[in-house]
Amino acid sequence: MSSAVAMEATRRRQRLSSNGGASETTEEPAGQWGRAWEVDWFSLSAVILLLCTAPFLVFFFVMVCDQYQCSVSQPLVELYSGEATLRSIWDKAPSFTWTAAQIYTVWVSFQVVLYMCVPDVTHKFLPGYAGGVQDGARTPAGLINKYEINGLQSWLITHALWYANAQYFHWFSPTIIFDNWIPLLWCTNILGYAVSTFAFVKAYLFPTNAEDCKFTGNVFYNYMMGIEFNPRIGKWFDFKLFFNGRPGIVAWTLINLSYAAKQQELYGYVTNSMILVNVLQAIYVLDFFWNEAWYLKTIDICHDHFGWYLGWGDCVWLPFLYTLQGLYLVYNPVQLSTAHAAAVLLLGLVGYYVFRSTNHQKDLFRRTEGKCSVWGKKPTFIECAYRSGDGGLHHSKLMTSGFWGVARHLNYTGDLMGSLAYCAACGFGHIHPYFYIVYMTILLVHRCVRDEHRCSSKYGKDWKRYTDAVPYRLLPGIF
Ligand code: NDP
C-alpha cells in the first residue's frame, strides 16, 4: 500500500520553476520531507550503531555517577588495569525494582490523564498564551491535524502537586526520583521500546493516515526513524505531542528539583550551581510549554516520523541525559564564585534571548505572512513555492531580515549558548556534565544539515536564493 502511495505521489509531483509557477512534470521522487525513502549504507550503519550503543551510553553516564562520582575516565582506567570488569560494573548497578515500576506507572498514567481528560483552561485567563485546540502544520499528504494544547496546564498542575506534597502532604520524599534513578532507567527503557515497537507494528496494521507513512524496505531504518508521520490513538492521543512533551519534559524540572532536594538532604545546603541549573533549565522548559502551539510548527512535529528516535529518545534519552548537570552536582556539590555564577547566568540568559527571539521572529513573520515589524522595520523576504505529496501547490516566504538575516539558524546558536551555560554551571572538575554540549552540538549541526537538505528539495532554486542572501548557518563569518 505504501509503495503505491509513493508511486502515485511521484507521478503527481511537478518541478517548480524558480518564480514559483508549476512547469513541467517530472519523475522526481516525491516526499523530500522528513526521513528518507531510500537508505544508503552510511545511514544504515549509523542507525544500527545508535540502536546498539545509545542505551549503553545512557547507562554509562548514570552509572559513573553512582559508582565513580561522575568520573568518566575512572571506569575505563579500572577496566584497562583489570581492577574492574564489565560484569563487576554491571553487578554493582541497581537493577529493576517494582517500586520504580509503580512510581513510573503512576507518573505516566497521571500525565496521560492530564493530557487526555483535562482540556486547557489556562488560555482563558493567561494573556498571550495560545492553548486549547490548535492546528498543526500541513502534513506531506496535505492534512492539517488538530491538537489539544494543554502542556502548560499539565506542567502547572504537576508542579503544584509536587510542591503541595513537599510542603504539606509528605506522601513521598522529594528525593524520590533521585533515590530510584537507575531502577527508573529500566522502566523508562521498557516504555521507550514498547512504544517504538507499538508504533512500528501499528504503521503496518492500522496506520492513522496511510498516505503519510514512509516505508524504506529496511527494517532497522523503519524502526528507528519511524514509518507513521502522526500516529494517533483515537482522535486526540497524538504520540508525538504526548511523548515529546510529557512525560519527559514535564519530568525534567521535577528531576532537577529532586536533585536539589538530595543536595539539601546530603549536605544541608543547596549550591548556587544547582540553583542556576534549576533556574536556567526551568526557563527553557516553561518556554517550551508556553510556546507549545508554536512547537507544532517545528521539525519534530512537521517533518519527523515517529519511531525509536522519538519514542525511545523522549522516554529515556531526554530525561536522563538532559538532566546530567543536576545529577553531577548531587555527587559533586560545586559552589561557584560570584563572578563565575554571574557569567553563567549571563550566558544562559543571552542564549535564551537569542533562541526565543529568533523563534518568535519566524513565528510572527509566518503568522502575519510578513505583515509585521521585525527590529522596527517591515521584514524582507524571498517568495517561494512548493508542492505537497498530494500534488497541491502552496506558497511560502523565507525571511531575510532580523535574526534570520544574520544567519540561517541563530535559534540553534542561542540554544547552544544556553546548553553551554548549564554545563559551565558545574565548574571544570569533570567532563561528565559537558557531554550535554557535545551532544547538543552534534544534534543541532546534524539538524541544520538535515533541515537544509529538506528545504533545498522543497524550495529548489528559491532556497538557493535564500542561502545566497544569508550565507552562514550558525555563526556569521565562520559557519
Ligand atoms: P526551526 O524552527 O529553525 O525550523 C526550520 C524551518 O523553518 C525550516 O524547515 C523552514 O520550514 C523554516 N524556515 C527556515 N528558514 C526560514 C526563514 N528564513 N524564514 C521563515 N521560515 C524559515 O527548526 P527546529 O524545528 O529544528 O527548531 C525549533 C527550535 O527547537 C530551535 O530553537 C531549536 O534550537 C529547538 N530544538 C531543541 C532541541 C533540544 O533537544 N533541546 C531539539 C530540537 C530543536 P518551512 O518548510 O516551513 O519553510
From TrEMBL:
Keyword Transmembrane helix: yes
Gene3D superfamilies in UniProt: 1.20.120.1630
Top-level enzyme category: oxidoreductase
Region Disordered: start-end pairs: 1-29
TM ranges: 41-64, 266-286, 306-324, 336-355, 419-445
Any one GO molecular-function label of the UniProt entry: 7-dehydrocholesterol reductase activity
Reaction catalyzed: 7-dehydrodesmosterol + NADPH + H(+) = desmosterol + NADP(+); cholesterol + NADP(+) = 7-dehydrocholesterol + NADPH + H(+)
Keywords attached to this entry: Cholesterol biosynthesis, Cholesterol metabolism, Endoplasmic reticulum, Lipid biosynthesis, Lipid metabolism, Membrane, NADP, Oxidoreductase, Steroid biosynthesis, Steroid metabolism, Sterol biosynthesis, Sterol metabolism, Transmembrane, Transmembrane helix
Pathway: Steroid biosynthesis; cholesterol biosynthesis
Matching Pfam families: ERG4_ERG24
Annotated EC: 1.3.1.21
Family matches, as InterPro entries: ERG24_DHCR-like (IPR001171), Sterol_reductase_CS (IPR018083)
Keyword Repeat belongs to the record: no
GO cellular component: endoplasmic reticulum membrane
Top-level taxon in the UniProt lineage: Eukaryota
Compartmental location: Endoplasmic reticulum membrane
Stated role: Catalyzes the last step of the cholesterol synthesis pathway, which transforms cholesta-5,7-dien-3beta-ol (7-dehydrocholesterol,7-DHC) into cholesterol by reducing the C7-C8 double bond of its sterol core. Can also metabolize cholesta-5,7,24-trien-3beta-ol (7-dehydrodemosterol, 7-DHD) to desmosterol, which is then metabolized by the Delta(24)-sterol reductase (DHCR24) to cholesterol.
Family classification: Belongs to the ERG4/ERG24 family.
Name assigned to this protein: 7-dehydrocholesterol reductase
The species this protein was found in: Oncorhynchus mykiss (Rainbow trout)
Recorded name of the encoding gene: LOC110526232
